[in-house]
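seq:
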Amino acid sequence: MSKKIYLSATLAALLSLPLYASAATDADLQVIREQIQQLRQSYEQRIAQLEQRLQQAESTGKRAEAVAEQAQTTVQQTVATPTAASSSNGGEGTFNPALSLILSGTYGSLQQDPTVPATGFAMSPNMGHEQGFNLGESELGIAANIDANYRGVATLALDPAGGISVENAYVQTSALGNGINLKFGRYFSGLGYLNEQHAHAWDFVDQPLVYAALWGNQLGEDGLQAKWLAPTDMFIELGAELGRGRGFPGSDRVKNGAGSGVLFAHIADDIGIEHSWRAGVSLHQTRADNRISDGVPDLPGTAGGVSNSFSGDSQTAGLDFVWKYSPNGNMRDRYVKVQGEYFRRKENGLLTYDLATANIADSYSVTQSGWYLQSVYQFMPHWRAGLRYDRLDSGIAAIGVLNAGNVIGNYAFNPTRTSLMLDYSPSEFSRLRLQLARDNSRQGLPDTQMFVQYIMSLGAHGAHQY
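struct:
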């Protein structure tokens, strides 16, 4: 409330001015006092309205994400814009970015080699865990309003082994109106439910198996995203993206035009004050060019597997749903959240087998899918427990005759995993978590896993999506 202090100081200074003959008259001073008082009342009323809207957004799921984001942006614009009384630079605003730093780490106890991929998904990235004590990936976030029309956000990932990578770096419009919002730069795609959430906001230590196998944990893009929020009581959001296609299952190609496209739609509503829900559909289309996978098992049983290459089209359709319940609408004390997602991917193209030796290319087509269902229960303030079940289907591949004796087309195995979670959050800025899992994602290699995790947030901490 720095402006309140400034206005109070100004008012005190005006009231203490000596009444010299050359000073302003009592009438002039009274006019100035009234103007200052009106300005102060208007400012306090606006802040109170914004705080009320934010409180309502936290206690209800209906349009929570859109309202919270709009209110937060308005607050930042209000604070960053000086009044006529305080501006001495021609009305130009000040640059005051919000800074945040996420610190995290885990201890992992595993019985099996984490580098072994899920059976039937060796051509996908293997997002295996690490054993023992590990410093997690730290996130440095910077966000600020650029001007009245744009807002900028950047998230830098600090690798424990050294080096910095750009996780997000995008510009977002704030003044288009009519429910339209544009985002351009590097961002997490809006498909599905979990994909846009950063790692520190996950309800479990890791992503579901379907996200790890089909997206390499998350689909990130360089491109343009457009969203439209319908002017209705029910939350209705439509979105589309055009991207470079750099993230798996695509491949970073050097060419003009877009390499990937995404369409998604979300609807949500409240049922009374205690229940809220959101459902969505999404479609992702991209193309892989010479996408290389190492260590892929083959029919001849080559020790350590072989290196293959795939070029072709990839299309993924998805469904997502989340339901939340909180007694009397108070999510600070107790709530239950149930969510699930299903993805189905079809790839069709040319597979080159054993690049180092055989180098045999022929047609390849496969449809793979996966889903998860999870529930998180906050049974008392600061304490939550969760249960998640994952399942994958590697499908039956159609393989060209030249590679029929080389490539495994049917693994006849469905990877699964069951996870239990308990976490404690003394505040919204800190969380300690224990997770146990029974991992049957690798045929013949069942694994009992235990993880201990800490997540600490320093600095500005924006609201998470619904």
